[in-house]
Design goal:
Layout lengths: L9 H8 L12 E7 L4 E9 L5 E9 L2 H14 L4 H5 L3 H7 L8 H21 L13 H22 L1
Antiparallel strand pairs: 1-2, 2-3
Helix pairs in contact: 1-2, 2-5, 4-5, 5-6
Length: 163
């Protein structure tokens, strides 16, 4: 049985080979994770945010495929220099577009990246006891999707241990 390679864009392949902003940010103001190593995709986003709520630095760590690495990499580039309300509005479709598109079976990588980003922003305000007016009470699509993938990975992991 042969496997057909996924139709990755040149930008995804380049970012996979040479990711930008890869690694833990030791002086991060906030961090968050999305995904699960059990499902094969995990992203940690680190943000250094100044007193004006501007992202000074953004880095990531990833356990996953080329699309996972590329979407997290491009996301860290998009957010730099932006205020958190603007960063919050970045959606998975924008990330997918920035990497030159994603194969349909890899759309979840853009969703996980933005899910981790939104978790980090929620954590930033939660640590300060704040709730901005522009932030929704409930979880966004990206946050819900990340949570669902994590729950699914946990269930599958438990089932595999029983067999």
């Amino acid at each position: 049985m042969s496997r057909v390679p996924l139709p990755y864009s040149q930008k995804i392949l380049e970012l996979f080979r040479n990711p930008k902003n890869l690694g833990k940010l030791e002086d991060a103001t906030v961090m968050a994770m999305a995904g699960s190593p059990a499902c094969g995709d995990l992203i940690a986003i680190y943000l250094k945010v100044d007193d004006r709520e501007v992202v000074e630095k953004a880095t990531f760590e990833s356990y996953g495929c080329a699309a996972n690495i590329a979407t997290a990499s491009v996301l860290t580039e998009i957010v730099k220099g932006k205020r958190l309300p603007e960063v919050w509005r970045i959606g998975w479709k924008e990330v997918a577009k920035e990497v030159g598109g994603l194969p349909s079976v890899k759309l979840h990588c853009g969703i996980l990246a933005t899910g981790a980003l939104r978790r980090a922003i929620r954590n930033f305000y939660r640590k300060r006891g704040l709730k901005p007016d522009w932030m929704p009470e409930g979880l966004t699509l990206e946050e819900r999707q990340a949570l669902e993938e994590e729950k699914l990975a946990e269930v599958l992991s438990k089932r595999l241990k029983l067999e």
